[in-house]
Amino acid sequence: MIFPPDRPARPSLASGVGRTSLLLVPVALASRGAAFLIPIAIAAWYGVGPVTDAWYWALAFPTFALVLASTSLGTAATPALSRLRSAAPTQVPGFVGGLLVWAALASLALGTLVCLAAGPMLPRITDFTPSTVALAQRFLWELLPFMVLTTAGAVLRVGCEVHGRFFEVALTPVIRASTVIGLTWALLGRLGPHALPWGLVAGEAVQAAFYAAVLWFRDGIRPTLTTRLDPAVRGVVADLAPILGGEVLVALNLVIDKGFAATLNTGSVATLEYADRARVIPQTLLESTLVMVAYATWSNLFATGQAPKARRSVIRSLQWVIALASPVLAGMFIGRTVLVSLLFERGAFTGTDTIATASLLGWYLPGVLPNLLGILAVRAHVMERNLRLVFVLGCASMLVNTALNALFIGPLGLTGLALATTLDMLLIPTLYLVLLSRSFGPSGLGLGGKGWQQSIGLALLAGLTAVCVELGPGPPTHLLDPVLWIAAVVCLGLLGVGWRLTGPSTSSAPD
Q1: Is residue 305 left, alpha or beta, with left meaning phi > 0 and alpha meaning psi from -120 to 50?
Q2: Are 390 and 247 in contact (CB under 8 A)?
Q3: Contact between residue 296 and residue 82 where contact means Cβ atoms under 8 Å apart
Q4: What is the pTM (predicted TM-score) of this model?
Q5: Cα–Cα distance for residue pair 312/383, rounded to 1 Å
Q6: Are 465 and 487 in contact, with CB atoms under 8 Å apart?
Q7: What is the C-alpha separation between 153 and 223, in angstroms, rounded?
Q8: Are 369 and 325 in contact (CB under 8 A)?
Q9: 3-state DSSP call for residue 251?
Q10: What are the angstrom distances between the C-alpha of 99 and each of 95, 154, 157, 168, 258?
Q11: Percentage of residues of the chain with pLDDT beyond 70
C-alpha cells in the first residue's frame, strides 16, 4: 500500500507545529538520505573531472527552476490556496490546474532562454576544454524537461501540503531517488554521461505523478488543466513577482560561484558542488519537516484570522532551529572529513578529493545556521505581506556574494568562494530577522525571553565545542578516531539538552 491509513485531510491547528514536525523527522531522514544517494552515485561513477564539471555547471542553471518551483512558487501559492480552501473549496481544482499550466509554460520559456544564452557563453566565461564545453551545452538542453516538470510538481506539492498530506510529501524523495538512480544506472551503458539528465527527468515525472495521485485519491481533487487566469491565480502571479525576483537572485549566487570556480583548475566546479551538497543536508531536513509544516500552518492560521497565534509559532520555530541545529552543525564541522569520506569516497572519488571537499565544507558550515533562520524568516515576511523586502534583500545577497567572490578568489582560490558564501549567509538572514522583529510590533521577537536565552546559550556551547576540537587535536580524519566519538557524545548531549529545554512540545496544546 502506497498511502498510510486515512486521516483527516485538514491538519489540526491544535496538534502543534512541533509535534507534527517531530513525527516527520524519521521519514524525512530516510527519504532525504535516499535523495542524497544521487550525488553519491554520481561521485562513484564519475568522481571529480571534466564530466562532473560539465554536469554540475549545466545543472546550476536548472536550479532556477527549482527556486521557481520549490521556493518562490510554493511561498506565493500556499497562502492563496489556504484562503481559497477556506472560502471557496469548489474552486480549488481549477486553481491548482491553472497554476500548474502557467507555471509549466513559464519554466519552459525561462529554460529555453537559459539554454540559448548560457550555451554560447560557456567558451567565454570558463576555462573548460572544447569537449567539456560541448558536453555542458548538450546537458543544458537535455535538462529542459526537468525544469518544466519541477515547477509542475511544485504546484501539486503545495496542494498536498495545504491539505495536510505531510507524510506523503516527506516520503516522495525516496520514490524520486529510486527512479533517478535506477534508470540512470540502466542507461549508463547505452548513453554514457547523457544518462544523468534523463534519469533526473524521469525522477521528476514520477514525483509529479505521485503528488497528483495523492491529491486525487486522498483528497478527491482532480486538477482542472486550464489557461484561464482566474482572480486567485492572478493574485499568486502578483505576489510571485517580488518573491521570485528575490529568490532567483539568491539562487544566482550558486551559478555565480560556479562561474568563478570554472576559471580555476579542472575539478574545481565539481569540488564546490560536492561540498555544497553536504552543506545543505541540514537545510533539506528543515524544509522537509519544520518549514513544510510551519508554513502551511501559518497560512491556515492567517486565513482564519489568527495572526497573533501564527506569530507566536514563528518565534518558537526560530528558537527550535537555533537550539536543535547548533549541536548538529557543530558535529558536522568537527567530523567533516569523515562525513565527506563516508558520503563520497568510493569509485572514482579519491582520498585527495575527500580532503579538498572537506576543507571547503569547513568554510561553508558557519553560515548554515543563520541561513536556516533566514529560510523561516522569509516565509514569515511573506505572511506579513513584506513582499518587496524579499526582492530587495535578494538583490543585496547577489551583489554582496559577487563582490566577495571577486575579492577572495585571487588570494584564496576555491576557499575564497566558500568564505564569500558564508559571509553572505551571515549578513542577509540577520537583516531579515531584524526587520521581522520590527514587523511584529512593539514586542518584536521577544529576544529577552527565556526561550531565546536557552537557545542562544546552547548555540554558544556547541560553537565552543567545535572551536576547542579545531584548535586542539584537530578534526578527526577517520571513523575510529576517539576525538570523533568524544565530540559526538558532547554534541548529542547538547542536542538532548536543547530538546528538553526548548524543543517542540509533543502535547496536544498549540505551539
Answers
A1: left
A2: yes
A3: yes
A4: 0.74
A5: 13
A6: yes
A7: 12
A8: yes
A9: helix
A10: 6, 10, 12, 21, 32
A11: 91
Is 487:494 a contact under the CB 8 Å cutoff?
A: no
Cα dist from 241 to 154, 238, 389, 390, whole Å: 17, 6, 12, 10
First-to-last C-alpha distance (Å) of the chain:
32
Residue 480: how many other CB atoms lie within 10 Å: 8
Task: Note the helical H segments in 126-224.
Answer: 130-142, 144-162, 166-191, 195-219
pLDDT 10s digits, 366-390? 999 999 999 999 989 988 888 889 8
Q: Report how far residue 130's alpha carbon sits from residue 384's, in angstroms, rounded to the nearest whole number.
A: 50
Per-residue pLDDT, averaged over 239-266, amounts to: 84
Q: What is the pLDDT of residues 453-474, one digit of tens each?
A: 889 999 999 999 999 999 999 8
Instruction: Give per-residue pLDDT as tens, 65-79.
Output: 666 666 778 888 888
Percentage helix, strand, coil for the chain under 3-state DSSP, each rounded to 5: 85, 0, 15
In the chain, the amino acid numbered 227 is T
Nearest to 79 by CA among 385, 444, 389, 432: 385
Cα 88 to chain center, whole Å?
A: 31
Task: Give the per-residue pLDDT at 499.
Answer: 80
Could you tell me the CA-to-CA distances from 226 to 101, 104, 109 in Å, in that order?
7, 12, 18
Q: Is the pLDDT of residue 49 over 80?
A: yes
The count of C-alpha atoms lying within 13 angstroms of the C-alpha of 235, restricted to the half-sphere facing its C-beta, is 14
Cell of 495: 542536542
- Among 307, 434, 442, smallest CA distance to 383 is for 307
What single string gives the DSSP state of each residue in 457-490? Answer: HHHHHHHHHHHHHHHTT----STT-HHHHHHHHH
Strands (E) in 291-435, as ranges, are none
**pLDDT tens digits, 5-35:** 444 443 333 346 666 666 676 777 777 677 7
Closest to 264 measured CA to CA, from 355, 344, 360 = 360
